[in-house]
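Convert to structure. Protein one:
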Amino acid sequence: MGTLIGASLLLRYLMLFRYCHIGGRYGGGKTMVALRLALELAMQGHVRYIASNVPAPYVTPVSGLPAAMPVDTAVVYDEGGVFLRSSKHLESYAAYLRKANIVMLVSSVIPPPRFAIKFTVWRSFNGFALGIPCALYSWRIRVDGDDDVSGRFVYWRPDKFYGHYDTAFVPDQRWPTELEGYISRVVAAGTAFRSDDAAQQEVIRTVEYVAQEVEQSVERIKVLSGQSRRGLRGKKRRWG
């Protein structure tokens, strides 16, 4: 499957925002990285199921998902921008993603509605062009009234994921309606599985994690800065 390097913060934000658009050109690996992120969420215990309009051995059909909340599912929506063309359509999903424990990864050349692309992921460097078996991905979250949050991660050996799904498969036109109907039924049948307190604790844990990462980065910068100054002083003595 290959290895995701430096993706921990991205995964934490996925669990907070619950919706992410993965953009790029045709054949640029959008669906592949979406499925790989979904598998990572499953391996880390954030979700139990992966649903998608792209068939794969580890994908559960909508009919096989839990009939009540929590759904515990990562949804990989291939070319979702074609179907999610109106905010009303998307809101039918978005309103209940956290309550049902659903994470939506929408890989699409055509972007979904503007308000739905606050969290975006895209491939910014293809290492294979230089003979390096990796790809560098960038991500950004647009936060209203605040600074954007951004980062990067490396997908090492994505070629090991080749053959895990049918790249020539054309998504079923009926699947979006099936998924929307399923989520509506589950929400109507159940209640939120997490309290507001639990959600707040998740936010607090993420903020603390980010603060810790920033603090460690500052310390590393101080160390490197000190080493640079000592090196410069040494050079001055030698040159003098």
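Protein two, convert as well:
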Amino acid sequence: QTSKPVKWYSKVVNFFDLDLLTDRGYVVIWLGLSIAFTAEINFSLMTPIILGDRGFDIDQTAKIMSVIGISDIVFRFLSPFVGEKINISARYMYMSSIILLIVCRTGLTFTNTYLETIITCAGLGVAKGFRTVYMTLVIPNYVPLDKLASASGLQTVMNGILLMLFGPLLGKQIYNDFGGV
């Protein structure tokens, strides 16, 4: 008996575990993580511009950015201990950090003084620290171990696609807003 030949696209689907894309839960996580990642990169790149628009000079902007970075690094270290202590899943910790990021970014629009901005940006750094740690744990906690490499690879591909799509759009908008052609 001769077996039916396997189509080339079936080999691609099997090789890259693209059957993950039939799992709605994975697709929601996949797209959500990528959209959040893209938003984070774009916001991080725009933060100094936003602070400059708010009237802060370069020295103040550098100090504010340092506060974000320091609190981010400190809470990258502390967040696993906090998560373990309160016994919440990585998915909910990630979601909580995204909500805190939204609150802090929104709060940044309402700050008027240097001190208020420092405090808000410290909160932003805390949220970024938690987000960074738990973002990397969401997919491994959802997919089976044998599909983890493919799931992470698909995540990276989607991150790249969204960054290539939205980065230039945002850059063009900023360029136009600041007197470009």
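The helical segments are 8-15, 24-53, 58-86, 90-108, 114-142, 148-177. The longest helix spans residues 24-53.
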